[in-house]
Design a protein that fits this description.
Blueprint lengths: L1 E2 L10 H5 L4 E9 L2 E10 L8 H29 L4 H17 L6 H16 L3 E8 L2 E8 L6 E3 L3 H9 L3 E3 L18 E9 L2 E10 L8 H29 L5 H17 L5 H15 L4 E7 L5 E8 L6 E3 L3 H9 L6 E2 L8 E3 L5 E3 L1
Parallel strand pairs: 1-13
Antiparallel strand pairs: 1-2, 2-3, 3-10, 4-5, 4-9, 5-6, 7-8, 8-9, 10-11, 11-12, 14-15
Helix pairs in contact: 2-6, 2-7, 2-8, 3-4, 3-6, 4-6, 6-7, 7-8
Length: about 350
């Protein structure tokens, strides 16, 4: 949502008006189809406005932040269990190392190969694959061990079913499952398959297999594989940003620079494991990139009744908020960016950003 005349907007909050807010944009943070928070930016000068392009770019920031939050959530859930502390400690260490390796792999194919190899080795499998969704099919882009089908319709086989449903799957013995009829010659036993996500959409599937014995995997293994999938989703998103940067070479200098800086930001922050630290750094970097006077991230409280500020840069006047109340509340309540915008009567400024991220206006 974008508001370029906040003091005269019908949904304004007086605390923001008193703080001098003139222009504001916001985009939701999502876990699947669920809204978990919001990120917003403010301008406090009448001559500074946000553009429609800013809203699109902020939405990309929100996608990166959402992926990092999901990664941190899975990390915390694994760290909190005590029954298998030693094994999970090894899982956490290995996935953290993989986390740090992402920045050194420039190509998506190399990233997905590394993802599959690490996950399969760590979880005790000996085969597996990564599929990406293309229309009504899934296409194999990384494979290990037993040969998998190169393409399959959504809903066909284990990976196709996970791609269609968006739900993780754990099979104790593939040979006794209904999926055996899809591939009668496939010598699989234990199977795990989890979705790769972008926002609320399933963009791919990560599948790990043990061809030697049944009941090889359990719920803890599935949870660990979901953590790898969260990292893989972030890697795919980052690669998408890099590709968008290349496509923008002939476009506006500002958009190209922002995309480049955002991809660098996601690679830098993927090594941090504390959500508060990740969000604080992302908020600061985002405010600088957009040359905004203030920026903040709000997350839904545990009771689901309100949202609270967890990271901010500059003077953010409100520590909490209510759904459908104010700009952030409306974005949180609607679950998506509003299509309508309110533009101030005057000419919107254009921007030019240097490589360092410092902004000038003209």
């Amino acid at each position: 949502m974008l508001i370029n005349d906040y003091p005269n907007w019908e949904g304004r909050l007086e605390v923001f008006v008193a703080a001098g807010v003139k222009s504001i944009i916001a985009a939701p943070l999502q876990r699947g189809a669920e809204i978990v928070g919001v990120v917003f930016l403010e301008h406090h000068e009448r001559t500074h406005y946000f553009l429609e392009d800013d809203l699109e770019l902020l939405s990309q920031v929100a996608v990166v932040a959402s992926a990092m939050l999901e990664q941190a959530r899975l990390f915390d859930s694994m760290r909190g269990a005590q029954a298998v502390a030693e094994r999970r400690s090894a899982l956490l260490e290995a996935t953290h190392e993989f986390n740090l390796e992402l920045g050194g792999q420039p190509a998506l194919s190399a990233l997905l190969d590394l993802l599959l190899q690490r996950a399969t080795l760590l979880l005790g499998g000996n085969a597996g694959g990564v599929y990406l969704v293309e229309g009504e099919e899934i296409q194999l882009v990384a494979t290990l061990g037993d040969k998998l089908v190169p393409r399959a319709p959504l809903g066909y086989g284990v990976s196709g079913s996970v791609a269609q449903s968006g739900e993780a799957m754990l099979l104790e013995d593939y040979a006794d499952s209904p999926f055996q009829d899809d591939h009668p010659g496939l010598l699989w036993r234990a199977v795990m398959s989890v979705p790769l996500r972008r926002g609320s959409s399933t963009i791919g599937v990560l599948t790990v297999v043990d061809t030697r014995r049944a009941s090889r995997f359990d719920g803890d293994d599935l949870e660990a594989l979901e953590r790898f999938a969260a990292l893989g989703s972030l890697a795919i998103e980052n690669t998408t940003l890099l590709e968008a940067t290349q496509l923008a070479r002939d476009g506006a200098e500002r958009e190209r620079t922002l995309l480049e800086a955002l991809s660098e930001t996601s690679l830098e922050l993927v090594a941090h494991l504390e959500p508060a630290q990740m969000l604080q750094q992302l908020t600061r970097r985002t405010a600088t990139l957009f040359d905004a006077d203030a920026a903040a991230v709000y997350l839904v409280t545990s009771d689901g009744k309100r949202f609270e500020r967890v990271a901010w840069h500059g003077e953010s006047p409100s520590p909490s908020g209510r759904f459908n109340h104010g700009l952030s509340g409306r974005v949180m309540g609607s679950g998506s960016r509003c299509a309508s915008t309110i533009t101030s009567p005057g000419k919107a400024t254009t921007f030019r950003l240097t490589r360092s991220g410092a902004g000038t206006r003209r």
